[in-house]
Amino acid sequence: MFHPSAFVSPQAKVHETAVIGPWWCIVDAGAEIAEGVVLESRVHVYGGVSIGKGTHVYDGAILGGPPQDLKYAGEPTRLEIGEGCTIREYVTLNRGTVQGGGCTRVADKVLIMAYSHIAHDCQIGVGAVIANSCQLGGHVRIGEYATIGGVSGIQQRNQVGAYAFVGGTHKVDRDVPPCAKASGNPVRFGGLNLHALRLHPDLFPENRVEALSRAYRELYRSGRPVAEVVEELKKGPEPLFQAFFDEHWGGSLIRP
Q: What pLDDT was estimated at residue 148?
């Protein structure tokens, strides 16, 4: 399943069912490619990269290039890509840095559209969608099933919560809460991302969506200090907030 024009290092681990396409696909020593992976033409997979079962990588993608960080001094770091992902044309994903934990991670079933860049130490959650030409700085976190609109830029160390939506062409210079819609430059929060919540009715039944709506209004429309509202929500009868926000947000909801 290797095209004659491809170069696959003998020190790479490539499953026999993987497809390595034409026009100088390169798989370096130390790369790991699981069963059913497809690399179209001109894909470069660096050492230290693992690609999970059934992932499809389109023309010109560069996976696992060295991090674009002046602190990087050649240390061995990794890029891990999960199962069933789709990585479209000319996407670039960099390996991690020692200072950021040593690994950039893309979870299962992620779609990254053409010309997007995922910098060092980013963490992309299950089922996330990153549209065309998005630019993610280092250490960015994208929660599960979040959607980032095309040509948006997310500054380093910011995060987009699970099930959130960021509109296209936006500058994200602050954290986006879980389940929220973000729009404008710089972004502001405009209610719940009801489309994503309705796609997951087991996690978000009607009563939970109503509770989230009340919480959103208190957090971002009441004018009260966010930290104060968070403490009230944690003590409330709906266990969603402490469990859900702690799991998907790590406490950074109260950041300015």
A: 98
Fold annotation for 7-192: UDP N-Acetylglucosamine Acyltransferase; domain 1 (2.160.10)
Domain ranges of the chain: 7-192, 197-254
Active site residues: 120-121, 138
In this structure, are residues 95 and 66 in contact, taking their beta carbons and an 8 Å threshold? yes
The 8-class DSSP code of residue 66 comes to P
Encode pLDDT of 53-82 as tens digits.
999 999 999 999 999 999 999 999 999 999
DSSP H stretches of helix in the chain:
194-198, 206-220, 226-235, 240, 246-249
Read off the pTM: 0.92
Per-residue pLDDT reduced to its tens digit, 21-33: 998 899 999 999 9
* Residue (of 113, 99, 201, 124) closest to 151 by Cα position: 113
> What is the arrangement of strands in the sheet containing 56-57, beginning at the earlier edge strand?
19-20, 38-39, 56-57, 86-87, 111-112, 129-130, 147-148, 165-166, 180-183, 188-192
Distance, in Å, from the CA atom of 150 to the CA atom of 131, rounded to the nearest integer, reads: 5
